[in-house]
Amino acid sequence: MTTFTIPTIETERLILRAPHADDLPRMTAFYASERSHIVGGPLNPAEAWGSLSRRLGHWMLKGYGLWHLSDKATGAFAGWAGIIDVPGWDEPEIGWTVMDEAEGKGLAFEAAIAARNYAARIQGLNGVISYIAHSNDRSRNLAERLGATYEREGEVVGEPCQVWRHPKIDISEPALISERTGQ
Asked: For residues 6 and 101, what is the distance between their CA atoms, to the nearest angstrom?
C-alpha cells in the first residue's frame, strides 16, 4: 500500500484538512445543484465519488491538491480550496469552492490565503493562476480581493474562462493570516 500525508492547516476559523469519505454526502448534494456548474457539475453520485477519489489521487501524484474545509465553530464541511494541476492545463491553479451556507462569510478568502501561502512557502508554487468562469462574479471579486489581476482569456476543460494571476508572495515575510500547520 502506498501511503502519503496531506498536511493540515488551521486558520482563525477553518481547518484545511484531507478529504475524507464523510464529506461525500455534502459533495453529492452540492454537485447535484445548479450552482456546481461553475466547477464542472452537475455530477451524479458516482461522479461525485470520482471527484473525491481524484482529490486524494492528486495529492498522492503531485504532492499538493485540494484541502477540504471544516468550520472550526461547527465542525461542518464548508468546501474546498487548494492547488490543482490537471494534464492539459497551462500551470497549477489555486481554486476554491464553499457550500451555500458558508458563502459571504469570508471563509473562501481565509482558505485561499492559507492555501496560497502554503503553496508558495512549502510547495514552491508561487504566483499561481486561477481559472475563473465568465459568469462567476463571486470568484472574480475574490480573486481581486486576493490581489490577483486579470491576465488573459483562456480555456479549461473545453470551456472558455478568464485567467487571473496571483501575486508572488514574499516568502521571507510572515504569513498574512495566522496559520498552524501539521504534517
From this structure: 26
Which residues are paired to 77 by β-bridges? 70
| Domains in the chain with CATH codes | 8-126 (3.40.630.30)
- pTM beyond 0.90: yes
What residues have CB less than 8 Å from 56, skipping those under 6 apart?
A: 18, 19, 65
C-alpha cell at 7: 498536511
104-143, pLDDT tens digit by residue? 999 999 999 999 999 999 999 999 999 999 999 999 999 9
Q: How far apart (Å, rounded) are the C-alpha atoms in residues 168 and 73?
A: 31
Cis ω on the peptide bond leading into residue 7 (within 30° of 0)? no
